[in-house]
Amino acid sequence: MRTDTPLTIYRKDYTPPGFWVETVEMGFDLDPEATHVATRMTLKRNPASQNKSLLLYGEALRLVQLRMNGKALTKRAYTLGPGTLEINNPPDHVTLEIETVTHPNLNTSLMGLYVSDGNFFTQCEAEGFRKITYFPDRPDVMAKYKVMLRADKEKYPVLLSNGNLIEEGDLGDGRHYAVWEDPFKKPSYLFALVAGKLVCQEEKYTLHSGREVLLQVWVEEGNLDKTQHAMDSLKRSIRWDEERFGLELDLDRFMIVAVGDFNMGAMENKGLNIFNTKYVLANPRIATDTDYANIESVVGHEYFHNWTGNRVTCRDWFQLSLKEGLTVFRDQEFSADMIGTDSARAVKRIEDVRVLRQAQFPEDAGPMAHPVRPDSYVEINNFYTVTVYEKGAEVVRMYQTLFGRDGFRKGMDLYFQRHDGCAVECDDFRRAMADANGRDLSQFELWYCQSGTPHLKVDTHYDEVAKTYAITLTQSCPATPGQAQKQPYHIPVAVGLLDGSGRDLPLHLGGVEIDGPAPTTMVLELTQQRQSFEFRNVPVHPVPSILRGFSAPVVLEIDYSDAELAFLMAHDSDPFNRWEAGQRLAMRRLLALADAVQKDHALSDSELQETALGKAYHKILSDRMLDPAFCELALTLPSETVVAEQVDVVDPHAIHAVRQFMRRSLAAAMRVEWEVAYQANRTPGSYSPDAAAAGKRALKNLALSYLMELDEPQMHLLAQGQYDQANNMTDRIAALSALVNSSAAGRDEALARFYAEFEQEALVIDKWFALQAMARTTDVAKVRDLMAHTAFTLKNPNRARSLIFSFCNGNPAQFHAVDGSGYEFWADQVIALNAINPQVAARLARSLDRWRKYAPALQEKMQAALKRVAATKSLSKDVLEVVTKSLAN
Ligand code: B3K
Ligand code: ZN
């Protein structure tokens, strides 16, 4: 907490550290009230640095002792600033001994050392290590660690830290100890310890090289029936990284520990990954198909960090996407490879792009817009964003699109060859890709330094006589905070051309010689602001399929007729663009209806079946050859948030009304087809979370949700029956959600039964809160009531997210209540959370990012709420940065 104006840190101000740390030895006397930490480190002067002093960071610490080279330092020999400890005129070789005390049980920020359900955990990324001891806590300072943990044996029977266990034993007096040594140099943000009453599922696993490693998944007692999926996911991750990238696990032991109080998803601490329980615990009773898939991808993500993040790390936090963008790309590819079939891979791709559009495009268009490699920050924790992660992953994906899988692998190999064991920059990754593929990628750097989502406009011309087809691409990028003018990007644009019967035409691009048969998809490289590409020997006027597979994170502007979109939806060989064509059709109709609502015209759906959209949906739903998971995506209307991004002035109530109207119309118009799809996609027998079964459940449950729009007793019975008979959480929660969003008589009883059955399962109770938070009838008053429920607490991030975030971000029509009560509620919760956990508070603070896009009456109320938060005393720099940037002109 601070009251002074927070400092902005700039990328251009980077200077190398004055000292390198070589070894770190730490002793912990773990006690929830007061934990003593004794640290001994050896340091040596960095000759390349102009920084003469030795700068250590520390926060919320009591300094008990400070010794340099064997002698206690007098107060004159060092300067204690806010958050820093500077040693004046140190010699070139230094051994520092520091004793500090922290109070883990008072630490509600969940950064540094804290207590969760009686056990000790740490979270050090980005700057949490400084809450444990004074240290040059910056990622380019890498050192070897040896750690001794001492604690009460009965309360804390398990003592874990990074690397290998080299000694353990009894201390007499009811206490015991363990010594851990990490053989690899690491930055302090990868340090971790865990101590407490935990049990583990463990397995020996043989690597491709024949070396045997020990894998463990640690959980609280009573959760051992929920660890198998995480263990299986870990084994698949290890195998995949060996096979796809030739990267082997470098430790003899790899541990995953689950914790119920955690700020984010998981953390890649070397050899000791700490996970939010949400991304570890699963069995059919408590976890949905989505949970299973998320667990696989997060386990993969953290494991892949072992190379992309830990072995090669970031020079400074501006380079965060170096490890995060790359590792998200790797986890996306891993999940796609695990599903196997081409159509299932496409489903994964569509889901990833949906996340980008739902969350990253709005970020890129709002007050917090920043480049993938930001130039400045006030609080680095505010920059663990969808831009750094998901757009960063798209940027990495573009290398693979440009160079192919083999070229990408060559770049990765060169990257590790050059930088293993080092802390480097995004530029180093780009250079490795360029050098390994013999290409100049200097223009490509703009993807890292310019914020905003580029727009790509497409014009085409067919010359019937010459049989040529020209595609002209024009790029632009809107102004973003601090960046008025943009340079043209290097954009890979994958294209195909369809003939009249929907088949791909062979492509002959003017000036390009290709050995072998002509391809049907080609990647055009747009590097100018405007560029034309001419295809030859095009026998008929084609329908173009542009940006196949979403080959670049841009907004595509292309004038298709409804008929062309329906044609692409039916025929494009690129499944991403098939889905995309359907989304465009649906968006077009939603926007037209929203316009009608705003002009007070009555909505009519009488002709829906005759429209291109009605016909296309009908065709998709009746096509038994299509993958159910794909159908589910194709028949899901763009979300209210995505629609809101398409209009100049957002009226959330109109958007909600027309989307609901369209869902009801589609339900009525295709009633029989939905009923058939519901029956045809049942998954009887024992539950399996595999992609095929999950896809069927997804389509079946989509059918259920459409049928429930009819709000007929017969449909209520269908949902009730599904709820009663479900043998898995996916079907159960889908039925419950359908009931809660209907007028079914049994809805309250179903909610109560659900609660009673799962009272002991925190992750399921989170779902119970979230489902109600997002229900159509849940208004602010109802959310305040739910906050008074005995099971609710603001202190647990999962619980706070399940109710408050779900309401503010997932229930736009109620959150944006015209009286502004939603914004008042939002401000109250941001302020309350700020005092408990600034990181979680700052996340919630982002919910009003796009306030300037709303109708003036709402804008005014949002601005007032933002101002109230900004004026709050003792605001953390996390929240202050977000609200200040939101309010800035
Ligand atoms: N690297 C961590 C995120 C840490 C967030 C700190 N505020 C998880 C991940 O991306 O794998
Ligand atoms: Zn990560």
Automatic annotation (TrEMBL):
What CDD domains does UniProt report for this protein, alphabetically? M1_APN (cd09600)
The residues covered by the Peptidase M1 membrane alanine aminopeptidase domain are 230-444
Domain Aminopeptidase N-like N-terminal residue range list: 84-190
Q: Which superkingdom, per the lineage? A: Bacteria
Question: Which reaction is this enzyme known to catalyze?
Answer: Release of an N-terminal amino acid, Xaa-|-Yaa- from a peptide, amide or arylamide. Xaa is preferably Ala, but may be most amino acids including Pro (slow action). When a terminal hydrophobic residue is followed by a prolyl residue, the two may be released as an intact Xaa-Pro dipeptide
Alphabetically list the UniProt keywords: Aminopeptidase, Hydrolase, Metal-binding, Metalloprotease, Protease, Zinc
Q: Which SUPFAM superfamilies match?
A: Leukotriene A4 hydrolase N-terminal domain (SSF63737), Metalloproteases ('zincins'), catalytic domain (SSF55486)
The Swiss-Prot or TrEMBL record describes its family as follows: Belongs to the peptidase M1 family.
Keyword check for Cytoplasm, yes or no: no
* Peptidase M1 alanyl aminopeptidase Ig-like fold domain boundaries: 452-558
**Annotated coiled-coil segments of the chain:** none
User: What name goes with this protein?
Assistant: Aminopeptidase N
Functionally, this protein is described as follows: Aminopeptidase N is involved in the degradation of intracellular peptides generated by protein breakdown during normal growth as well as in response to nutrient starvation.
* Cofactor annotation: Zn(2+)
Q: What class of enzyme is it?
A: hydrolase
Q: Which gene encodes it?
A: pepN
Record-level Gene Ontology MF annotations: alanyl aminopeptidase activity; metallopeptidase activity; zinc ion binding
Domain Peptidase M1 alanyl aminopeptidase C-terminal, chain residue ranges per copy: 562-888
Tell me the organism.
Noviherbaspirillum autotrophicum
Pfam families registered for this protein in UniProt: DUF3458, DUF3458_C, Peptidase_M1, Peptidase_M1_N
Q: Does the keyword Oxidoreductase apply?
A: no
Gene Ontology biological process terms, A to Z: proteolysis
Q: EC?
A: 3.4.11.2
